[in-house]
Write a structure and sequence with these properties.
The protein has 503 residues and is an alpha+beta fold. The chain is built from 16 helices and 15 strands. The chain has a three-stranded antiparallel sheet with strand order 5-8-7, with helices on one face. A three-stranded antiparallel sheet has the order 6-12-15. A hairpin with a 4-residue loop joins β7 and β8.
């Protein structure tokens, strides 16, 4: 039986995972300047940053960059704390108006909490490790789970879509009622979208850097209703009420989409598809995603565990050089970095997401699917067009090295009468894994020819290390094939020497 007494206020109770600290409340998040970074997995971080941005936008949306700079992280936190106090009665996890929940959905089937957690094995799914077993959740766990469901919910038949709150509601197929299969959360979508945010040295600074100005929001033409109203201020009454329709067209509706109608219960949650948001094929997308608008249809950057997020940095940062702009852009990151250059000496970039698979309408994490994330730091003093051109050139050269390695390993395999496809792909992946260890050094040293020369020497060493690992030379026949196909990186090294001589 659901609880109707106000209990567990998210403003006061600890539920937000913070690295090296544990769980904190919303009040502490916006009052403790020592908090550095979020904890939790990639999906949780995405959902939480979006929630924090929504709270900040509702509390204090500055008109322009000048007003944003005057506000500062301390001013923003002060405004947020005042806002939270004004809306305290809307942040109870349990009660008559539970946070981001729909009491009317109590008619939906009660599901166990493990059903909506991608890392938990339920039903007839095999349990391979203890971490996949369902555990008891406390109220802090349930609050975090609820926030994740708003934007990052897995699609499939686990939602009880027999319950419809808007009379006469018709889904996307124009059939009466909801489809049997629930849509994935708009921040997850079909295969798992990659999200990027600008981060500061503290969580307060991170919230400040990601705060949009009114001018920023006006430039987001995919949201005709502009900023909109935070859903906890005015929750929808159903799937297609006036409030739901506004959320579909506003920034608030992408930050906290309410894509699931939930109601927490003692032993599980009542769970149904909520507001059905449009996706990238219909011109709607989150500002934190990497999107290509050049063609007739939007193209999105999906999470790829084999291609780590740091390799997308040239596309994410290409706005620096108007002549070398990528077809992809991230509006959230662009706006955040422009602000960071105005006001802070050092800032970071966080990229991540969750890769998922689909089968017969059911979305799940399996096989090569995984959550990925990367964090890198940049110095505003060296962040320039010249720096970006050098960094972009080095990344292009690394791509050429990776292709060269693939070709050399494939050639060795053919000499040995082996199928090259899988072996060459594994070798290339190992090369990129080794290179990732030097990604921060590459960002730091792209403005210095000597540093770039040293890094190129190391990268050239990686290609030989990987080739030797996958192409042994233990027998006479192997040695002959190895000598014939081993990669030659002399041209890569010569470029290094010429750069050093030109300094």
């Amino acid at each position: 039986m659901e609880e109707s007494v106000n209990r567990f206020n998210l403003i006061d109770e600890p539920w937000i995972p913070v690295a090296d600290v544990g769980r904190v409340s919303l009040k502490r998040l916006f009052s403790d300047a020592e908090l550095r970074a979020l904890g939790g997995n990639a999906a949780q971080k995405i959902a939480l940053i979006k929630l924090f941005q929504a709270i900040c936008q509702a509390a204090a949306t500055p008109q322009d960059d000048m007003q944003w700079q005057t506000l500062g992280p301390n001013g923003l936190c002060s405004e947020v704390l005042s806002y939270l106090e004004r809306w305290r009665d809307r942040f109870w996890l349990y009660g008559d108006k539970p946070f981001l929940q729909m009491p009317a959905i109590a008619r939906a089937e009660l599901k166990s909490y493990g059903v909506v957690l991608p890392e938990i094995s339920t039903g007839n799914t095999t349990v391979l490790t203890q971490s996949q077993s369902e555990k008891m959740l406390d109220d802090g766990d349930k609050a975090l789970l609820l926030v994740v469901q708003m934007s990052m919910a897995l699609g499939g038949k686990k939602t009880d879509n027999s319950v419809v709150l808007t009379p006469g509601y018709r889904g996307k197929t124009n059939d009466k009622g909801k489809p049997a299969t629930g849509k994935p959360g708009p921040a997850l979508a079909f295969m798992g979208l990659m999200h990027s945010f600008c981060i500061g040295t503290t969580l307060a600074e991170t919230c400040w850097l990601n705060l949009f100005t009114a001018e920023n929001i006006a430039a987001l033409t995919q949201y005709p209703s502009g900023l909109g109203t935070a859903p906890w201020e005015r929750m929808p009454e159903g799937e297609d009420c006036a409030t739901a329709r506004e959320l579909k067209q506003s920034l608030m509706g992408r930050l906290v989409p309410v894509s699931r109608f939930c109601l927490l219960a003692q032993n599980g949650l009542h769970y149904s598809e909520g507001i059905s948001h449009s996706n990238y094929k219909e011109g709607l997308y989150d500002p934190s995603t990497l999107v290509n608008k050049k063609g007739k249809e939007l193209k999105m950057q999906w999470v790829d565990p084999a291609r780590r997020p740091w390799r997308e940095l040239p596309a994410l940062l290409s706005f620096i050089n108007a002549e070398k702009q990528s077809e992809y852009e991230c509006e959230q990151l662009h706006a955040g970095i422009v602000k960071a250059q105005l006001a802070v000496g050092e800032f970071g970039i966080w990229c991540g997401g969750l890769r998922v698979s689909s089968n017969a309408g059911e979305q799940y994490v399996s096989g090569a699917d995984d959550a990925v994330e990367s964090t890198f730091w940049l110095d505003s003093a060296v962040f320039s067009t010249v720096w970006f051109n050098h960094f972009n050139a080095e990344m292009e050269e690394l791509d050429k090295l990776a292709r060269r390695l693939y070709g050399c390993v494939s050639a060795w395999c053919r000499e040995m009468k082996l199928e090259p496809k899988d072996i060459a792909a594994q070798a290339t992946e190992m090369f990129w894994q080794l290179c990732e260890k030097q990604a921060q050094a590459l960002l730091d040293g792209s403005g210095d020819p000597v540093s770039r020369a040293q890094l190129r020497k190391r990268f050239a060493g990686y290609i030989h290390q990987v080739f030797n690992h996958y192409c042994p030379r233990d027998t006479a026949r192997q040695m002959e094939a190895w000598a014939k196909t081993r990669p030659n990186t002399a041209d890569y090294s010569r470029t290094v020497l010429s750069e050093k001589e030109s300094v």
